[in-house]
Design brief:
about 280 residues; alpha+beta; Alpha-Beta Plaits; 2 domains; three-stranded antiparallel β-sheet; 6 helices; about 20% strand
């Protein structure tokens, strides 16, 4: 069987795998259905000829980096074929951001239409994971004799910083690759050498709670939170816009730091209570 025939067969096999992956809602935060995903992926990778092992990230590591999600176990799936060096490592994250609104299809039900797959994670990056698996599977089926190891790591938590995903994979010494390919959705004709970084924090505003019928007895934390948030949007954004990366970006706007105010808002009790606490990200 020619290389093209093997790839064509594996493409259809990979499409079926992608549909299964999309249907597992690995939403992060907080980190749901992780175990179901790695178990499913492990089965698929073993079918492709890989040896697999699942590592649970220690709870204390999760609590250190993401205390709000310590009750949601994190897992790393490591698959290998071959032995020795060089180790060519494919790395993909299986967590996805919440689906949000505005979908024309069910976000966790893969739909193939017009040569495209629609569903949460189809691009970022369960599609990339499957592309790596199909590429590796096709290689090992058409190159039975080669020196080295093909390794695939499926990791959690890239969407919140990656400390308990790829960060733990490396710090715990689970993988020491020679070459790494990360099939993030950067386009089929682009190869990039890094990612933009992230720094997340919450701004907390404390007031004084009171009954809604006597607001003069309280201090409305929401009203003050709005003022603080406005300062971030008006003043801090200007500070960021004065900075610019020296690297090349596919979209020039990516070279300038950005701020996302209000991705998450916390606080308030009930409609008839003056809020004594509010916070925004």
């Amino acid at each position: 069987m020619s290389y093209e025939e093997v790839l064509s067969r594996n493409f259809e096999w990979g499409l079926d795998a992608l549909k299964k992956f999309i249907e597992i809602p690995t939403v992060n935060p907080p980190g749901e259905k992780y175990r179901e995903f790695v178990d499913t992926a492990s089965t698929i990778l073993r079918e492709a000829g890989f040896e697999t092992k699942i590592y649970e990230v220690p709870r204390e590591v999760v609590e250190k980096h993401y205390p709000d999600y310590k009750d949601y176990p994190r897992y790393i799936l490591l698959a290998q074929y071959g032995e020795g060096r060089p180790v060519v490592h494919f790395n993909g994250h299986y967590d996805v951001v919440p689906p949000g609104t505005g979908w024309k299809t069910e976000p966790f039900k893969a739909v193939v239409e017009g040569g495209k797959v629609y569903g949460r994670g189809a691009v970022d990056m369960k599609g990339g994971i499957v592309a790596a698996i199909v590429a590796a599977k096709t290689f090992i089926e058409t190159h039975r004799s080669f020196s080295g190891t093909v390794e695939i790591a499926l990791v959690p938590d890239e969407e919140i910083g990656g400390e308990t995903g790829t960060g733990y994979l490396l710090s715990a010494g689970l993988s020491r690759p020679d070459y790494v390919i990360i099939p993030e959705p950067s386009g089929s004709e682009n190869i990039w050498i890094g990612h933009r970084g992230a720094f997340w924090f919450y701004v907390e505003v404390y007031g004084k709670q009171a009954h809604g019928s006597t607001p003069w007895l309280g201090v409305n934390a929401f009203e003050y939170m709005v003022k603080v948030a406005q300062r971030f949007m008006d003043d801090y954004r200007k500070v960021l816009e004065r900075k610019k990366s020296s690297y090349t970006y596919d979209d020039p706007r990516g070279a300038v730091p950005t701020i996302t105010v209000g991705g998450e808002v916390r606080g308030g009790a009930k409609i008839n209570i003056v809020p004594g606490y509010m916070a925004f990200s």
